[in-house]
Amino acid sequence: MGYSGVRGGMDAILAAERLVRRRRDDAPVEWAGTEQIAQRFRLAVDRIMGEAGLYDEGIAADAFRQAEGDVLEAAHLVRAHRSTLPKLAVTEPVDPDRMVVLRRIVPAHRTPGGPQLLGRTTDYTGRLLERPRERPAPVPAEAGQPQPRTDEQRHPRRFYRLLAELDLVVQHPDPDGSGQDDPEPFDITRRAPRTPAPRSAILASMARAETGALVGLWYRSILGPDGDVHEITLGDTRHGRIGLSITHPHTGRPVEIGRIRVTEAEGIEDLDGADEDRTKFDVGYGLCFGHNERKAIAMANLDIAWRRTGSGSALEQLLLLTTDGLDSGGFLEHLKLPHYVTFRSMVDRKTATRQAADAAERAPEPFGEECR
């Protein structure tokens, strides 16, 4: 009987796989090409790269197509592919000040050092649905081209520097006691982070977290159901290209091997705690792959919230253990797998408990009615 149940389940699984492949091979319209997906679904591709922890637009686009638009499933595919790749080298530390800025806004200051570059964004457009009835005409090459910017405008001065010069930023002690300003970062891809964790593990976990989960956790922190109300302002919020370098094995000098797009955000919080310096601000930091301002902003604000609640706090556990989309999504998805044996044992226990209770009610008194 057990063998027959397993066999029937396997037949259903194989039939489901055939339906998936048939949908891919016999769809009424052609599959979108890799380059088309990377260009037309840019934000979805960026989100997949960030949540998978692998910067490769082509692979992310192929995963998006295979997952039929399911971003979490696509991230799962890319992370599984990433686990098969060899580790060839470790890049040099990246200096965000070397970023070639494509978009930069500073909501905290009207005229910060350097320009406000709105870039390509829907923040200021009306949310009106456009449904083109025919293929749009090609846009002339000269139309819509951004105005050339100077090197100073593409590398604007960081707003944090202004706050630091005014002595308005609180200085945090060395987090791990090593005496290093920039200790070796925690590699969450090779070791599972556990509390208490260093700040690098917290930031790395958030950079690879599911965007919606991170935004939801940030929103809970902002509303303050746990009694922690945070007053947040944004400093620099940037999207741009930055180079990656490795050490040449023969010359020992750094060599740039490519450029990636990243989003960076600084969150500014007004300190008002009893043990905090109320004459200064705290500044949190967030950086993630691609153009994903929601994640970077949530990261920056949660970075401050984590520091204020302390290492080993409930927030730290939530950031490390519950925001990974593959972990949470995988646990949810596994509920759709067969659980009839487990559930049958639960039913048997409840039935036995009910029968025992009924038998106890029907049992006669041990010494009779007159002995009461």
Description:
With 372 residues, the chain is an alpha+beta fold. The protein contains 13 helices and four strands. The protein has helices at residues 2-25, 34-40, 42-52, 57-66, 71-82, 151-154, 159-165, 199-207, 211-223, 293-309, 314-321, 325-334, 340-362, and strands spanning 100-105, 232-247, 254-270, 281-289. Strands 1-2-3-4 form a four-stranded antiparallel β-sheet. The longest helix is centred in the N-terminal third of the chain and has 24 residues, at 2-25. The radius of gyration is 27 Å and the shape is globular. The two termini are 53 Å apart.
The general outline is globular
Beta-strand percentage? 5-15%
Tell me the number of helical segments per DSSP (H or I, 4 or more residues long).
Answer: 13
- Order of strands, main sheet, comes to 1-2-3-4
Mean pLDDT: 83
Runs in which pLDDT lies below 50 for 5 or more consecutive residues are: 1-7
Spatial separation of the terminal alpha carbons: 53 Å
How would you spell out the order of helices and strands? HHHHHEHHHHEEEHHHH
The tally of beta strands, per DSSP, is 4
Structural class given helices, strands, pairing?
alpha+beta
Radius of gyration: 27 Å
Main sheet properties: 4 strands, antiparallel
